[in-house]
């Protein structure tokens, strides 16, 4: 059994009618059996945020947070390594490989970017300033101390970071220089997917630039103006240029095979540029990873 090196937290909302914390956990995480949660509680692996242990009969406590450590029985090993491109006293810039998640999720607890960096380099207070999908490779900004995280997160929230992605898809039917796509995106029936609702006002925007064509494939530069979940993947699929090897868009099958390490999704977080919020120093970073046409 592999245990996550860092805790996970879950908020207990005010409007729930559960009698015990255990009842809430069983309902909240339906993919984990009640027996597993009972074992975790009895083994003193679940507590409130302040460290108070939760018992099987602990009453539900609205507006509190539960702390626990995720565990998995058979964690896959990701056969690709991350690479630190830059480091100073405040932050790291890391090239994340395809397939490696940033935080513990699903079947991954130790095979994550945060876990690896903490284990290999003793960055015990490491924090991530923004999101990057597990299947997407490229640049990730990590703060070395959590006290700096908010300042760098605010850069992304205020759209003060220039983010440029590269993607490979099929060649377009009609060659174009650049186009801006504005769509309304919303969660799909499966919570892990997104969908487009053309009847609603746009809440996402991306710029798509054609860089070059090679036979039946093409390399595109993608610039997200907004930051919706899976935005670039959805936008490319919506114009008939789904990203090569994307398992979710434009089509998805519940019988989809597990990760094929020989066919990574061809999406790369290529460039990050920003003004350091603490020193006003300009920075620009370029991923050393490559996509395949």
Summarize the structure.
The chain is α+β, with helices and mostly antiparallel strands. The protein has five helices and 17 strands. The model has no long low-confidence stretch (mean pLDDT 93).
Layout of secondary structure:
Layout: E1 2-3, E2 8-11, H1 21-28, H2 34-42, E3 46-48, E4 65-68, E5 71-72, E6 83-87, E7 91-96, H3 113-121, E8 127-128, E9 137-143, H4 149-157, E10 162-170, E11 178-183, E12 185-187, E13 194-196, E14 204-214, E15 217-224, H5 231-238, E16 267-275, E17 282-286
Parallel strand pairs: 9-16
Antiparallel strand pairs: 1-5, 2-4, 3-4, 6-7, 7-9, 8-9, 10-15, 10-16, 11-14, 12-13, 14-15, 16-17
| Largest sheet features | 10 strands, mixed
Whole-number count of domains: 2
Alpha carbon gyration radius: 21 Å
Helix/strand order: EEHHEEEEEHEEHEEEEEEHEE
Beta-strand segment tally: 17
Shape: globular
Q: Class by helix and strand content?
A: alpha+beta
- Second-tier CATH architecture of the largest domain: 2-Layer Sandwich
* Fraction of residues in helix: 10-25%
CATH superfamily of the largest domain: Pseudouridine synthase
Any idea of the CATH class of the largest domain?
Answer: Alpha Beta
CA(first)-CA(last) distance: 39 Å
Taking pLDDT < 50 over at least 5 consecutive residues as the criterion, the unreliable ranges are none
Q: If you average the pLDDT, what whole number results?
A: 93
- CATH domain topology of the largest domain: Pseudouridine synthase
Count helical runs: 5
- β-sheet strand percentage: 25-35%
